[in-house]
Records
---
Amino acid sequence: MNDFPKIQTVGLSGILIRFADTMSEPANRAALSFRATVDAAGWAEVSETSTSLVSTFLEVDLVETSADSMIERLNTLLATRDWFTADLPSGRKLWHVPTVYGTDLAPQLEEAAALAGLDPDAAIKELAGARVRVLTIGFAPGQPYLGELPQNWDIPRQQGLTKSVPAGALIVAIRQLIIFTNASPTGWRHIGQTAFKTFRPASKIPFALSPGDELCFPSVSRTELQNIMTQDTTGAGGAEIEVLK
Amino acid sequence: MSAFLNILQAGPALTIQDLGRPGWRAQGLTKGGAADPVSVYEGAALLGQSPALAVIEMTGTGGTFSSDNDLRIALTGASMAAKIDGDPVIWNASHGLAAGAKLTIGGSTSGTYGYLHVGGGIATELLLGARATHLSAGLGQTLAAGDTLPIGADKGRDIGLKLPRDTRFDGGTVRLVTSMQTDRFTSEERKRFTETQFTRDPRANRMGVRMDHLGAGFHAEGGLTILSEIIVPGDIQITGDGAPFVLMGECQTTGGYPRIGTVIPSDLPRVAQAPAGTSIMFEFISVEQAIALEIQHRQNIKSLSGKLSALVRDPATIRNLLGYQLVGGIVSATDHPFDEDN
């Protein structure tokens, strides 16, 4: 990782700190930790921060603020520690999101299991027992990219697109899971269905998840999910939350 | 007393907009807001009010509007054929819209996005801190006939003012700075890019503007192995078929296609407003030049009110001249000016 982290300006809109050029757990950890540290520093020039898979973005008005002086401060901050082994930010949440695997609600479980070298029951066991982190949020409001699953789930996207999977769909590819915000076409495989709404515009907390949160997807029956959907008025889809220390 | 704007008839793509909804990028929501923010500032200058007030953005064509109250309005952005009760009114200007009068706004004659501003602003409920409709995120929706929009208290009085027309509706040269993957395009490919005449694809929308051109597509080295990364408005992504897309305010927060450059903020309204088929050329400039241009642009926005001038009307064209109170505005020294409000 000789070349990383790399700092570059982005148009006149801000500064990007990249910790890798491919997805990796340590680089994702670095991006999350570095963002939290910049937030805590409370620099007046930084109007907004965010992370993508392995980078941290600071929105800075480069018309009013010298990029060189910001880069100098960032280099000083970067040099204070090894960000790839940094602790993850505190106050993150662990979500348990009830999920129906397979059935007509999620018709590609068997196909995905075969690609991961498992029979459907073993695949459900592995997926329901996995704990994944919100690597980044994007594409649609509140939509999490979650990872990483064990190596055998490094399965490619489909050649063709599935015309539409519903909101709350749990889909898989390249060792990552996504919970869909809105019904949408996708090249990822639809293996589970939840009643979890990632974006709740009318709620006081419109975005359920934050980057760095962790999730697991315990297996429930169709009937249980239907009961949850009938009773749920919040969009939580029966999810339970623990705060991580 | 609260006033409302009634939408009697609506074109296909009318939305409420403001200067956008910053602060949610980490949660996957881009800022959005008016496709041409300069028009928002112009309307604010014409009505002497805050540019933070919400307006109606009209894509390609307008609609028919009325109110039960006397309103002040301003029309900016793409020129559209506008009439009040059948009498043509001038674009890029402020006017009175009397209670019950019908404002009709037709198709655009130059530019893409027209704006209707109301004194006091459109005062719908704030959603995540802003009023801007963000169609791709599902925040708000296009306006339709029968909608009734609340209007804020209008503290201003002036009407009959105009601003000079800008050149941003005519296409032309759009300036860029380099972006994250500019160096993945060979210097020959970049040169060809800046020597190519593009036209705005008719499918352009608030998320992005596809640029059409004759000849081969543009390609980056290792173009398909780029990790998805943050997008800022103005980024030009080169998609799989080699066509450039200029990303606008309502795009996704991240994208995985290589970016050849980023349009400078002051030239982005030129991309937004170019009508379908209008010619556009791209030119790389240094970051220092871009900063100097943006400082000038911000100065121009600040000094818009200094460019206001009175609409001069030829009395011969005023149909109901005798209906006008021609000696209005005379102030009584004894009457209390606010008595009517009690």
---
Amino acid sequence: MNTELEVITSDEFIGKYASVSNLTAVYRLLQKSDSVKALQSAFASGRITEAHVDAFTRELLRSYKTGEQFAYSFSLAALAVALEGTDVHFAHPFLKCLSELELAEVAVACRIAQKAIHARHSRTANISRVFEISKPVHVPLHSAVPFKSELVENTEFLVSV
Amino acid sequence: MPKLEYFLISESVSVDRETNRISVFNVIEDFHLTGIHLATQQPGIESAELPPNSAEGKSRLQGIISGFVAVACFNREEGDEGRKFLGNLTLRSNDTVCFSQDMPFQLENLRNRVIMRFVGLPEISAGVLRFVFNVDGKEAASHTVNVF
């Protein structure tokens, strides 16, 4: 297992977030986390690939038990936040799958993944302003344009456009 | 320094509120000055002289636009966060500056679109019209249009 991935499964890492009840606070803390930033660098450099992520999640899910809080929910949440800010091809499918899970045991990871997807959609900022050029063009749209009606022969209309 | 992804001049743009995707409509590639001049500089001209159904009338009418939009998309580079940049759009009609507008901006996200909407048109003459987008005084991108 990669060192960066190993860090987010440690008791020390999970313990930091387990006591935070507000999901938005967890999300923001994860965004600022050095471990998550290290993961992002690893994704960007290609040290962690899709195969690594696949093997990692499979390994974690081996400890999944129905009716019990999933021990590595915060690890999956950290992975989701790390993938949010990267352009790797498997980021969106991973986040989509995680966000669509309807399992109470991994609720934190699911909801963090939903936040990550939302953030990815609004990653592009729009900085917009309107300017008026001092001498605008005045197109005479109100001028009368005579033309023949094709429906009624020998009849002319004056139409204001 | 931010890295430019694209720069375009069009008649209008639309950003989808739900998906934040941008659509650029009617990219401006040429201006038909005769149409603009007939419509603006000779307001007394009778419309009968510019039949809308004739080929000539159609080509002239295609040149009539009431404004334009400049879109520049930048990717934030290291060290750009929190920095203020001075954007500037300059129009050069045959290498003569005919219009200039500043627009300060900050790169809040990894990818940022700077959208400048203009109502009206500056005075231009036949030849080559260059829309130049400068960032902190350096040319970042340009879009050239032929004026007939």
---
Amino acid sequence: MSFLGVPVGVLAPLLGTLAAVIAGLYLLRPRRPTLQVPFGALWTAVLGRQAADSPWRRLRRMRSLLLQLSLLASLGLALADPRVSGCGGGGARVVVIVDGSASMQGLRPLGPHQVALDRARARLLALEPGDQAAVVLASVPPRVLRPLGSPAAAIEALAQVPAPHGDADLEAALGLAATLIGVPAPEASLVLHTGEPRLEDLDASAVCDRMRCELSAVAAATPNIGITALSARRAPGDPSRVTLLVEVTNTGTSSRDVTLSVKAGRVSLYEELLTVSPGPPTRLHLRGLDAAGDELIATVTAEDPGDTGPRFDDEAHASLAPRAPLRVRFVSERPNLFVAAALLAMERPLRLETLTPTQARDDRERRARVGAPPPFELLIIDALDDRDPLPTEAVPSLIFDPFHVEARTFPVARGRRIIRPRITSRDALHPLLRGLVFKDVNLAEATALLPEEGDEVLLSHLQQPIAIVREVEGVPWAIFSFDPSRTDLPLRAAFPMLVARVLDMARTDDAGLATALTAGQPLVLPVEDARDDPTGPRDRVEFWSTDSTPRLQETALVVDGAVRVSISTPGTYELRMRRGDETPRALGRISVQGHGARATTAAVALEAEAATGAASPPADHDPLPRGRGPFAWILLAWCLVSVLEWRWFHQRRST
Amino acid sequence: MPRTSPTIEGIEPDLLFDEAFLRQLGLLEVIARRFARGEQRGERRTSRRGSGVEFADHRPYVPGDDIRRVDWGILGRLDQTLVRQYEEEEDLPVHLLCDLSASMRTQDDAKLRLALQTAAAVAFISLAGLDRVSVTATAGDQLQVLPSTRGKAQFLRILRFLKDAPRGGGTDLRAAVRRFCASHRQAGVVVFVSDFYDLNGASEALAMLRHRRHQVTCVQILDAREYDSASLTARGDLSLDDVETRARTEVTISTETLLAYQRAHTRFCEALARDCRQRGIAYVRADARTPLRALILEVLRRGGLLR
């Protein structure tokens, strides 16, 4: 009899020690309460008679101990997974190890991953019916996809091999496979399919000395250069620009010339010839690329693909978060088509809200009572005829003719009323006015403003400011002391540009996030406005590919305001939330990378070890695969039950 | 407020009875079913003809009789020389045998207190009846004897004896009675106050007393808190501590165990009572919480010890 990974000679003393500890605990009995009796002889006679009358009572003390020992024996058996030699047939035992790391990826129709699966399938088909086979996925940590069983079951398990991604611990996979086979047997075989070119140099003697190892390096002859990281975001100061971080890694053995290109749709944003050497990844920080689209695709193209190498070695996707619309509140007593037209002509998305002064004041008071922030980023106040104070807010503001009514109070002091003013000077270097022409603008009237220290004067009439910028509570207010509807300024090209500059003044930092993740990794995506009603139709999020023929890749239910999904195919996906039979609502885009940042780190490390000839220490494999939480919980539960049972035994029905 | 007898230094307050109770005790006397042979004159008539004042019978004169007892009237009328015989009045030996072992001292000495009070009360009654009273206290292997004494004046002496008598130890009634019988050869009334918690020795001790022709009255004092399953609150895993032998036994006590003990205790007491009945021994059972007044004036009177 053999135990899974643990010799009987080691396990038996361990279990014996545990049994002795348990028995010792039963001998260690807590102090009992004392009952003084005057007639001890009669008590002895009664108790002796009772013990004689009820044999079960004599066994009661042992019952708890036997229960404990049986629990220990059961736990030991469950942990040990005993297998009798010869049981299960006398045929060959083969464990197929499939490299699941990102180094097995490839864009050609018959990539290394598919080649490895085909070879594994052929190897399993060649087995006899009485043979046993298992499938192990070399990942981090390695996983047993199918324990020892019939070859047909192992072939079925090959279909469960996920798309290669991330890292691979080949030595741990070898150790796990050896543990699966059990006792050393000459008829046992390990078949390792991997894309690691230098696998023959891998020190697998600890395993391969005991059984036959067949190593099949399916991608050893081809170069493998991958984009191991790609992230993109909008430039903080200019949303029309994109900043890219690209990491290219050569997992081969020689330097290769490749072309790195970045495209947004069909627009080429960047292209460069790179010479990528084996070893640490090559990182590029690309700034100032045009944001020609929300989806970016980076490809690495081999300059010299050779006879068998792929033309396109790797491809990575990144998507830019959509720009949030700028919320603008326009307070006016009458339709102002000039301002509205200037706002709606903006290229960037806007959400315009027009309110009367009374509505604006009511909304401000309501928000002040509950302490809510303003629901807009820019406030534009037209020239107002009522005498009440202007509904100003602590947000960037554009205020026209605040002294349209002379009695109105306003934070800026006023000077005299100017009839038919002329713009005699302007601050041409100010960001609001840079490049704008205000020549021969006709104004009906304006009010001279008395600027204070810190105010920036934009426009003046004979040294009398008629437009200033003042910072109030940390936000800028652009104040023009004339009514634009009584000027010909809206007819000039400078007016919409001035409004656009004001919008820029209110722009928040919306550079967006680099929404990309690695294939196979779990994704937890919060969904706003999700309805979590178990009785009604459940919200679900669909992941549609964005290629020429969109297809539904994944569907995930919204649970607790988020979806949890794992996408194994690299690419860019459009997320749509569907509620019952309603029309789906677009949530955004997300890119799934083939490589992770640590995709080939282990492979490089193995190469380094092989090059230096360092013998790796024998792997200290657990009999149980690492990360198996239930076994730990079972062990903890057993300890808890043992303690409670022991304690309960000694306190049973005590008062 | 009942008046107690004068406070006497060194006497336990429990043994000091109030005046009314003493007066009631003075009206009682110990019943002697058979006339015991006393050593001194007393107030009890005996079957012996002697120098009492109560006329009993005539008998023919024989030389040597006291000439003063010749009934001259009979001689003159019938010409027969007869001698008047009078009933001999002797005292009654009353032996109080008190068990002061450790088993009497559980539950706040309730049993011991009632046993001492009972012995003191019976002693007072006997002294008041001019009987000779001896007190024997047994505790473990110790046996302390107060020799026979008469007269009410000796009551305090008896009280001091009871106060100073040794306590504790095991209950070995057979050995105690054997030593008692060795020191009290004269048959008399034996009032044996104990819980009789001697599984094997109680019956033999009683048989030994009867063999010495004592008129025995067993007063078994029990405490229900020691055997009643409803009163015993202990359950679970316990360490039984025998107060007499100090032996400890770890047991698991359940309600069934307590009921079994109660049944066994009842059987033991019934066997003791049956044994007493078969041997012509008066048997009285009293709970430790029985008031002394009720025990003396009602229970012992019903039991045939007092009248």
---
Amino acid sequence: MKKYSDQEIQDQLDGSFKEIEFHELTNQYEDIALYKSIYKALENENIEVPRDFSKKISVELFYQEERKKKTVMKLLHGALIITLTLIGIIAIKYFGLSLLPNIKQAANYSTVVFVAVFAFVVFAITSLETVITKTKTESKLRLD
Amino acid sequence: MVTDKELVENILKQGARDFNTLVIKYERLVFSIVSKVVFDPKEDIEDLCQEVFITVFNKLKSFKFQSKLSTWIASIAYNKAINHLRNNKLKHQNTIGIEEELSGVDNETPENILSAKNEAEFIRLHVDSLPHTYRTALTLFHLEEMHIDEIATIMKINSGSVRVLLFRARKQLKEKLSIYKQKKNSNEKV
């Protein structure tokens, strides 16, 4: 009787070598039994996953999103401060120190005035949004 | 039932909210890979698995479905675990020999052999003593029922090498199990 190699027995158990039938391997019952035990133990292994693992990921992602938002806000604020400083410098250069009363003169530089007003509005909106996001985050964290 | 493609599209649209479904679907796969590569305490394995899912979330936009989602996630898990192992090895290079680290935990003591209550427990003890490449290949093939080609993609080796790993690992286990059975039989006779 032909003696089958370990490779042939494993192939048969893997189902990748269909030609061999187990009854042909009569002189290798012990080997087959050992391999069968190994296959069974490997297939039935129990992998433990902590119960609240997915929740932890959600919390971690939430914090990550918040950190990203904060960074974006910081950058935005930085950019606004730079813009406002530049506008201030330009305004002082054009109007000197009598900036507010000289409306007539301001009308001559409508673009600069428009940009200044626009920047102030954006700044106000972003500041407001930051406060709202912060409040939302805190309340959500408290809820969780 | 939501397909992987729908799931990914939902996550990309909705953000982190739908990611929970993906985590629940693949957490066992990630835990089984990470715990087979590294032998750290449970908490460290959990942290590493957490890192894997954060990376999956951050890189999800770049996933183009050129492979199965499970294969892609498993690759990330395997890479993270291997990097962790390398970093730890650098830290402990002076105290632990590389061969010892690579070959896992040595469980082949007479006490362990006799203390294993049954064959299944004995086999599990010895799986842990195999090199991590063997353990990973065995886990992905038998427990996760992955195809050889998928395992090859995950481990970044060719299919032939995966077959060799599986063959050698199972043969080693068979030889050890044979000795265990002989010892157990002789003990019973005494």
